[in-house]
Amino acid sequence: EGLAADGKVDGNIPVQINNGVFSIVNGTLQTTGTGVIRYNPAKPPPFLQNTTQQQIIDLKAALAQFHYDSLGVTINGEIGKSQQVQLRIRGKNPLFYAGKPVNFNLNVEGPIENIIRYNPGSNRIPDTIRKQLETYEANHAK
User: Fold this and answer.
1) What's the CA gap between 31 and 136, in Å, rounded?
2) Contact 91, 83 (CB under 8 A)
3) Contact of 100 with 116, CB cutoff 8 Å
4) Per-residue pLDDT of the chain (142 residues; tens, 9 = 90+)
5) First and final CA of the chain: distance in angstroms?
6) C-alpha 83: how far from its chain's center?
7) Positive or negative CA dihedral for 92, 97, 101, 104?
């Protein structure tokens, strides 16, 4: 909610199956050019609600209209359990610090449910694999 993005990405999200356990190993997505991210949710997630921290204020202001030069994501971990996601964005917001360049590096670790199913382009996963992933997730949901 509140997120819109324009641009193109390319990459691979390899899924390994070992004894019925699905894992993403060195999944990478990288932009193939420039684009724009707009993030302005009506109700920000809890980690963005602390308006007393200047970093949070700056992050929200920059992402309101962020023109990126490059964006990359790396994903690793067992599906339905814990994944590590590293996000790297370079660019600027013309209205934030007079359009000076900004680099964001964000590392997140935890159970990112349904990472495959809701991934843009997930309809390209063969139906048999998609059904296996959905069955696995349904049987191992918390």
Assistant:
1) 30
2) no
3) no
4) 788 999 999 999 898 888 888 888 999 999 999 999 998 888 877 777 777 888 888 888 888 899 999 999 999 998 878 888 898 999 999 999 889 999 988 888 877 654 444 444 444 455 666 676 667 667 765 5
5) 24
6) 12
7) negative
pTM, whole model, 2 decimals?
A: 0.66
Tell me the sheet residues that pair with 92: 67
* Largest pairwise CA distance in the chain: 53
